[in-house]
Design a protein that fits this description.
Elements (H helix, E strand, L loop, with lengths): L2 H18 L10 H7 L15 H8 L4 H4 L1 E2 L2 E2 L3 E3 L6 E3 L4 H10 L3 H5 L3 H10 L9 H7 L7 H13 L4 H4 L4 E3 L15 H15 L1 H6 L7 E5 L6 H12 L3 E5 H4 L4 H17 L3 E6 L14 H16 L3 H4 L1 E7 L7 H4 L4 E4 L5 H12 L8 H7 L5 H17 L7 H21 L4
Parallel strand pairs: 6-9, 6-10, 7-8, 8-9
Antiparallel strand pairs: 1-2, 3-4, 5-7
Helix pairs in contact: 1-5, 7-8, 15-16, 19-20, 19-21, 21-22
The structure holds adenosine-5'-diphosphate and magnesium ion.
């Protein structure tokens, strides 16, 4: 028996149980099985699932299904392959026997713990209910449909078919599925205040209905403030992964057009775009690019129009009504208009990391890198460095080690990297000191 056998039997069991049990929904299907079954029109995996040879080939790359279903040279007793139609299924009346067989195989347990449909069966349907398997727990770990690329593609497809210019709108933002996001919360070192804000954001999302019921619609607008390289973008993306909702990333420089009327239209378009992805995070980077103090600019009247459009768009977007969690990020606090500030219900500060945080950031980045270095000592030497600066230092150190034919880092590599970083940023400062 090979893992191919388990792949096929797992699929057949999943299909059979999913078809039979009314309680099971699309989010209970593991993503590897869900992807090829996804119907972008209905954004669902319709019942019944009817496995077949083509599906199995697409899903697992298995060409010889009969071969995969042989155990010690004999065909698996509880499945039938229809030679004519290519359909493959559990033999009528054999679900329990097939499931019992499956459970005894090596590696089956890991599969059950990643497959809510199977977990449901073994914990509450089968004769011998397994008290060590919790359907709720397995289901809560399975990424929901909104976390998948297919979900986003379905919405994009609909946008392109519509009468509007949906395709055009897509140029105004980057849209990522949580499963494509590389950043993760456990690689970010946060202050207590930031952790607290994170909790509040999560609670606001989970209790959307509660906020609607008590008439508080003004939640879910968050402003990230801090110098470049302090983790604002990473935080927003990691949040998308943590909450399993897509992230629509907007750079205000991208939607600013030389024709100001067009800029205002783009602002409206990009907000309309985000609302199509309900639920999602709309992340507006370089927020100060437009939302600058209205009096401080030469092209006064024109800019004012764009700012007003932006403010109106923010007012007309709601987590409760539209499912859009709005996060804006800015490097400059001073440039922002008072009217802009008022629109955010939470302000999260991103400061340069403290000594302890710098050590933690270094330790986190170095987790995957060989070598034995004193990160506390490096943290002491890197006052005022941002998280991004520390990453650059380590990258430099890794390159230095490679020049010396080493994959392992030594203290000297890091010391050198810090020195060269200091020298470089020193140069930068004198060059721009006139500014
Ligand atoms: N607090 C932090 N903890 C861990 N890594 C950090 C932190 N702040 C920044 N970084 C790292 O620095 C890099 C740049 O961060 P980024 O999120 O782009 O900053 P910003 O958007 O504020 O300019 C990322 O790779 C990130 O992992
Ligand atoms: Mg950024």
């Amino acid at each position: 028996m090979t893992s191919e056998t388990l792949d096929v039997v797992e699929l057949l069991l999943t299909a059979e149980i999913y078809n039979e049990q009314d309680d099971l929904i699309v989010n209970d299907i593991p993503s590897k099985i869900r992807r090829p079954l996804w119907d972008s029109k209905t954004r669902n995996v319709a019942k019944p699932i009817k496995p077949g040879k083509t599906m199995i080939k697409n899903m697992f790359g298995i060409d010889d299904v009969e071969g995969a279903l042989k155990i010690n040279g004999k065909p698996f007793a509880y499945a039938v392959v229809d030679a004519y139609t290519g359909s493959v299924r559990i033999t009528a009346g054999s679900l329990d026997a097939a499931a019992e067989w499956f459970k005894k195989q090596e590696g089956a347990r890991d599969r059950i713990l990643e497959n809510p449909v199977l977990a449901y069966y073994y914990s509450s349907v089968s004769e011998e209910k397994d008290g060590n398997i919790s359907y709720e727990e397995v289901a809560s770990k399975n990424p929901p449909k909104e976390a998948s690329r297919e979900w986003i593609e379905s919405i994009i497809e609909e946008l392109s078919e519509g009468k509007g210019n949906g395709r055009e709108w897509l140029k105004l933002a980057y849209i990522k599925a949580p499963e494509e996001v590389r950043e993760s919360m456990d690689e970010l070192i946060l202050t207590e205040r930031q952790k607290n804000e994170l909790q509040k954001i999560e609670l606001a999302i989970k209790n959307k209905e509660h906020f609607r019921n008590i008439g508080l619609y003004d939640i879910g607008k968050v402003l990230f403030v801090g110098p470049p390289g302090t983790g604002k973008t990473s935080f927003a993306r990691a949040l998308s992964k943590k909450l399993s909702i897509p992230i629509v990333e907007v750079h205000l420089s991208m939607i600013t057009d030389q024709y100001l009327g067009e800029t205002s239209k783009n602002i409206d378009r990009v907000f309309a775009l985000a609302k199509k992805f309900d639920p999602c995070i709309m992340f507006i980077d370089e927020f100060d690019f437009i939302a600058t103090s209205r009096t401080a600019n030469d092209e006064h009247a024109a800019i004012k129009q764009a700012v007003n459009t932006l403010l109106k768009a923010i007012d007309n977007t709601s987590l409760v009504e539209d499912g859009v969690l709005l996060i804006a990020a800015t490097n400059h606090t001073k440039k922002l208009d008072e009217a802009v500030w008022r629109r955010f219900d939470e302000i999260v500060d991103f400061e340069r990391p403290t000594l302890d945080m710098r050590k933690e950031i270094l330790d986190t980045i170095l987790r995957k890198i060989e070598g034995n270095v004193d990160t506390a000592a490096i943290a002491k030497k890197t006052e005022d460095y941002t998280g991004s600066d520390l990453r650059m230092v380590i990258r430099e150190a890794v390159l230095t080690a490679l020049l010396d034919n080493r994959y392992e880092l030594v203290q000297e590599d890091l010391d050198k990297a810090v020195k060269s970083f200091d020298r470089r940023s020193g140069l930068k400062m004198t060059a721009f000191i006139e500014e």
